[in-house]
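Weekly modeling sync, notes
Attendees: AB, CL, MP (scribe)

Item 1: holo prediction request
CL wants a bound-state model with magnesium ion before deciding which constructs to order. AB pointed out that an apo prediction alone won't tell us much about the pocket. Agreed to run with the ligand included and paste results into these notes for async review.

Input as submitted:
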Amino acid sequence: MSIFNYNQNKNSGYFSRLSEALKGTKEDLAWKLKQVSGTAESRISEEQLEDIEEILIGADIGVTTASEIIDLIKEETRARRFITLSHCRRIIRQKLLEILVSPAEEIKNGTSSGEVPIPRVIMVVGVNGVGKTTTIGKLASLYKKKGNSVLMCASDTFRAAAVEQIDIWAKRTGCDIVKQAGGADPAAVLFDALAAAKSRGIDYLIADTAGRLHNKENLMQELDKMCRIAGREVSGAPHDIFLVLDATTGQNGLQQAREFSRVTGLSGVIVTKLDGTAKGGIIVSIVKELNVPVRYIGVGEKLEDLLEFDPEPFLESIIEAG
Ligand code: GDP
Ligand code: MG
């Protein structure tokens, strides 16, 4: 069973928005799988299995996962003497579901106390251009719709334009913002924002961060410092650190994920720009590699283009039903 409200999502147009955003990935994966065999019920040969493995690797789900799936299919073939494409699809979906669900279950179990800290402090990290600031605007909008107050923190002070950009999102979503002039110390801006969030009784404090400082080591140290300050000012903070990755960068995104996973307390990944890419399978590689759940997916540039990630409809959208 899905941990999110799958049926409710499905009824509310969630599924059609998801399908639309994942059209590129589906066309790539499901369409190619269909080409392997004439009909869903025709038998798959050894040779066709190689084609399936190639298709899975091409879909960016990862070489190890692809070969594990092929081994499972071979096992089933030995047990039943033959296998159909529809059965292969079921095996693929089952394996991918296991990968996508396991860290999500861990997170769910880890926060089962039901207590919601106030303010809930969220840090958004990732390299330049992946969509951090845009995603903060979208997250703020989502939390506000659920009746929460949101304060944005303009801690990407490395580029002057970054402060202006988040300011625009704050105005657009009607959120308060704490900012200083470009070049200010990011941790100092966060410190002010934490104080403001506490005194105003804000529900969510969302902090933007720089995607690049003078070097990588510098950036990681700055993020660590921000985490320490957050923890000193608000118990348990940051409660979430979301790593934003751009789906269109494929394996490159995976390399970024490895580097950022050194930041302690990474609690989720947000994969952006799934609209208009055929590389949606990268989600599976990310989750497997980091053992961190995907929490949201970005499906466009507009405020409402952020969806909660739910493994089952995601897989249903990229692999046709058996
Ligand atoms: P940052 O440098 O990480 O803060 O990235 P920005 O938020 O400035 O976004 C960089 C670009 O990506 C902007 O042009 C955004 O409109 C665009 N973008 C962000 N998220 C998405 C998404 O989900 N889909 C698409 N198509 N574009 C996005
Ligand atoms: Mg930004």
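Recorded for review: The chain has a mean pLDDT of 89.
Action items: CL to compare against the apo run; MP to circulate these notes.
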